[in-house]
Amino acid sequence: MSVLNIALSKGRIFDETLPLFAAAGIEPLESPQSSRKLILPSNRDDVQFLIVRASDVPTYVQHGGAHLGVVGKDVLMEHGGDGLVEPLDLHIAKCRLMVAGFPNTNLNGAQRLRVATKYANCARAHFANHARQVEIIKLYGSMELAPLVGLCDLIVDVVDSGATLAANGLEPLEHIADISSRIVVNRAALKTNNSQISELLTKLDAAVQQTIAQS
Ligand code: PRT
Ligand code: MG
After folding, report:
1. Pocket flag, ligand 1, residue 53 (CB < 6 Å)
2. How far is the centre of ligand 2, averaged over its atoms, from the C-alpha of 143 (Å)?
3. Which residue's alpha carbon is nearest to atom 5 within ligand 1?
4. Residues whose CB is less than 8 angstroms from the CB of residue 195 and which lie 6 or more positions away in sequence, other chains included
């Protein structure tokens, strides 16, 4: 029996995933808040958690560094999903991928708009679908700052309550996609570790359905 490596990011996704894994009988023995370890053992000998950057989860799973992972659909869309299968929507860490900017921004004007985002591929695809010419400016965070200092006309970012946009005088202008976190599995591992992974997916699915029924 081999040990299943599950890639997770700290913070929101870890916090919201934990109850689902617990319901499936899997609990980490340490928390990433109190531990500096990047490999967290679990109560099961055949499962351990790998703590990685949210945007690195698809890369770890794609290249087999982890058998499976939990990742936001936003990060997954941006990665492209090569070498991965996406068998389960966990219905957690929900938000929306949006185009945002100053109120009354004309998205359909003649001038070429500058769009700052860490979702360069998603943004490029979205504006291409609308036949709009844009210049993409790649950022790694704090996108809401960029329009305020004239770096760009628009941003593409995930929005939950909208409070961060509002606090910076911005508003959501266009919806790109509804986002929630997904289980991704390495395509080859699905064959080599089929029984272990199938068992885990069945239990997680049951936990998700139960959580949905209770809400
Ligand atoms: O920092 P790093 O690059 O490692 O990763 P990360 O910042 O993307 O990780 P994390 O933990 O912040 O987010 C992980 C995943 O949570 C994302 O990929 C999304 O799928 C999901 N998620 C859900 C969110 C939000 N809600 C969210 N609100 N991710 C980020 N936000 C940000 C948002 O961009 C805004 O700046 O939180 C801020 C507050 O949102 P409002 O609208 O409630 O004000
Ligand atoms: Mg962050």
Report:
1. yes
2. 12
3. 54
4. none
pLDDT of residue 110: 83
Distance (Å, rounded) from C-alpha 78 to C-alpha 205?
25
Hey, whose CA ends up nearest to atom 17 of ligand 1? 72
11 close to ligand 1 (CB < 6 Angstrom): yes
pLDDT, position 33: 85
Is the domain of 61 the same as that of 99? Answer: no
Nearest one of 183, 162, 163, 9 to 96, comparing CA atoms: 162
Mean pLDDT (10-residue bins), the chain, 215 residues: 93 96 96 91 97 98 98 98 97 98 92 97 97 96 97 98 98 98 97 96 97 93
Domain extent at residue 27: 4-93+180-214
54 lines ligand 1 (CB under 6 A): yes
We report the CATH number of the domain holding residue 122 as: 3.40.190.10
Total domain count for the chain?
2
d(CA 142, ligand 2 centre) in Å: 9
Report pLDDT digits (tens) over 154-174.
Answer: 999 999 999 999 999 999 999
Which ligand is nearest to the Cα of residue 74, counting in written order?
1
One domain, residues 119 and 189 = no
| Residue 13 backbone phi and psi in degrees, to 5 | -70, -45
Structure-token pair, residue 76: 């997954």
Tokens describing residue 60: 């770890």
User: 139 and 203 in one domain?
Assistant: no
Encoded tokens for 4: 């299943």
* CA 158 / ligand 1 centre spacing (Å): 6
Shortest-distance ligand to the CA of residue 118: 1
Q: Are residues 70 and 107 in the same domain?
A: no
pLDDT tens digits, one per residue of 20-47 = 999 999 999 999 888 899 999 999 999 9
